[in-house]
Amino acid sequence: MPRFVSVAEANVERDSHLSRNGDWNAREILYGSHQKHVIDPSKSRLLSLPSILQEPETPVEWDLVNLIVHGDRAVFYGEWGSYKSFLLYHLALHLAAGKEWLGWKIPTARRVLYVDEEMNLSTVKRRFRRLMAGMGESPADLPLQLLSRVGLHFSDQSAWTLLRCLDRWNFQPDIVIIESMRRVMLGDENHAADVARFWSNLGPLLERGWSVYVSHHMSKPNPERPQALRHRQSGSTDIIAGVDCALAVTRQGKSHAADVTQVKQREGEEAGTFTFLVESSGDVRTGPITLRRDSTFQRQENPWTVETSTPKPPMLER
């Protein structure tokens, strides 16, 4: 099974390192410090137009082909109960395994760090176990690591301190998944300046060439004033403006089906909408969970504004 890092384990690591190296404080991961992120001329350079035109075109490196580019910032946003967390756990496992995910090709296995500031550790572990059981033949030693409720907030220095922690833990991810923006952001999600600062504070992770996926909440639907999905994120429009890729997750009424709609893709055309089904078997709390793509499920015409009477979903903790 993947090695899960609990708060207690993180504190043991912190205290151990503090005893050996008093000038390094792991609690900076919670509060940051006063060092600013500035341009380093030794690592940056101006690019002339001729040099841009003369350089050969480099192929796009994908996390998921035609969906998410490696090294991008992506946001997954949806309402409470839309299976958004299950979707991200499921995605993390498939990225680590290098297995096709809901019809999207994953070219290579990735090392994944999952930072969950939403769920308690026992719930996260149970969900990962159930999804692993649903994957069947996948190996148990996937390169996936977890930080659960360590109190991470992205100040202007916290990303650097997280990098130092990862260096000491000897784990260098290719992809960092963060649940959720509201739990790790300092400031007000309704203020564009605070949101822009949050995306900027993730810069050190992106500079290492890592992808960063962030989950976020969706505003409640208003049947009297329907909104397009690209405008349904909770908070400032800079939440979508500041990312390279945005995917909206909308549940089909009260059913066990949900849609994923790509509303932004800087690398090309948006991928549109696909539907997945959540299925469970065995014990309602510990049995395997499977997510599968289903093109035959009849979607509602406006799933983000209309609810209808639909089949009872499988019994999953939400």
Explain how this protein is built.
- The chain is α/β, with parallel strands linked by helices and 318 residues long.
- Helix content is 27%, strand content 20%.
- It contains 10 helices and 12 strands.
- Strands 1-6-5-7-8-4-9-10-11-12 form a 10-stranded mixed β-sheet. A two-stranded antiparallel ribbon has the order 2-3.
- The longest helix is centred in the middle third of the chain and has 15 residues.
Primary descriptors:
318 residues; alpha/beta; Rossmann fold; 10-stranded mixed beta sheet; 27% helix; globular
Can you describe this structure in just a few lines?
The chain has a single domain, classed as 3-Layer(aba) Sandwich (Rossmann fold), CATH 3.40.50. Helices cover 27% and strands 20% of the residues. The protein contains 10 helices and 12 strands.
Shape: globular
Major beta-sheet overview: 10 strands, mixed
CATH architecture: 3-Layer(aba) Sandwich
Strand order of the largest sheet: 1-6-5-7-8-4-9-10-11-12
What's the helix-strand series? EHHHEEEHEHEHEHHHEHEEEE
Total helical elements: 10
CATH level 3 topology:
Rossmann fold
The CATH class is identified as Alpha Beta
